[in-house]
Structures
1.
Amino acid sequence: MAMESAEIERLIKSALPDAKVEIQDLAGDGDHYAATVVSEVFRGKSRVQQHQLVYSALKGQMGGALHALALTTLPPE
Amino acid sequence: MIYNSHARGTLNSAMKGSAMASIHDQIQNVINENAVVLFMKGTPQAPQCGFSGQVVQILNHLGVPFKGVNVLADGELREGIKSFSNWPTIPQLYVKGEFVGGCDIVREMFQSGELTDQLGKAGVPAAQPARG
């Protein structure tokens, strides 16, 4: 099972409309991604809370269809 | 603060509520009784996943004593820890009952020195890592 990077980006943006999302397909196998997500929503939140927002945007796909997503989250500068 | 959101957790429908409650109690006991707990795939001596192995390496590098809990040994635990922490992946690091994060966050905090600071605040002796 794999997931297109465009689908990952769509899910994240549907939950965090202001997000800037950059996704790299690390292994070229549609299964191991690194994503950087920049959103105002993250400001003042802990890293755990920031990542939980992204995981929740992915609607349970993380750990399932989406095997590996290295996440970096931050508020806009 | 503990991320212990039973209500929002991804409860596996195959699991009865009572079984999940009891596995959550067991997890709570383990993190109450051990200052540093790593829920991981495999054991600290033989990690069975690269992400778990990375966190083991970081803790060893810092000279932090920790309890490793192998979630592969128990399917209920493997699902239970995800709903307990509201976190979809393994490994998961707890310090003094608080969920610190998974592999990405632990690595980021190690590199910035925040992990050593947090361990120090929690009263866990950690050797100062070489920075550079």
Note: Chain A has one domain: 5-74.
2.
Amino acid sequence: MNETMGAQKAGGQSPATQNRLVREENRPSRAFVTPPANIAAGPDGYFIELEMPGVNKDGIEITVDGSELTVIGRRQSDIPEGELLYYESTPADFRRTFELSADVDTSKIEAHMEQGVLKLRLPRREDFKPRKIPVAD
Amino acid sequence: MKLTKRQQQQKQGRENRGALARSGQDQGQGFWGPLAELARLRNDITGGFASPFDDLLAPASLLGGWTPAFDVYEDKDKFSVKVELPGMKREDIDISLDGNTLTVSGELKDEEEHKDSETYRAERFFGRFQRSITLPQPVDPNRITATYKDGVLKITLPKTEESKRKQIEVKAS
């Protein structure tokens, strides 16, 4: 795990090798699973919703490195008593990386957690919003 | 990587799979199931990028719907069932028991918060779902309790006095 985190940092520093490292980063690992996401774009910004059941607000880690947004969700280990008879859930934590477009104001990203769904609001930068230009006489 | 206690338990649980009768749609979200393996393989091939085959290969759509992931635990007094239901409202979840069969159903509603937005990706499921499992021993329908927190539904089903007694008899003989 530390290794991949290192790779990500190196990717930010050296544009020449970035693509290769980013691709490496996207390869699914056994330690993390990719949470399903809904992404929408409105006039004021973008919205991302990520399904991470079993994760609460304290288990969320959101980082922005250049144009890359990484979300990590760690499950709370709240295991019921007794022997596990049957299971379908994944024991792994969640991680997903998004490439942000240039018009996202990364200093104004908002996030909140609602019943295992992380909701992110990424506002557009003011100077990237469509505006009217008056015609001079 | 070290296995956590839970992973070890899950490994154990995998070997005990046959112990529990199942009904309803199945296998949809199982990480270790063959369909999940297929999904992972697809992920390996496409490197996680979108492809025209995404929808075709998604485990849920192969089965024509979505089913939540179930985990079942047993100790001497009760069964505990964990169901992953991210983003629901408590009042939209229905739990019922018919004999030994536990059914969880409900509806995941799209809140349409971003009505005037353009959709870039839609991987979350919205709509109705239903899922049943049959427990191996009778439970007391009057003492079932459930909580919903962080998108996980936890149902506790105490065994009936009779099924507890039966268990003791078997152990003694």
Note: The longest helix of chain A spans residues 2-13.
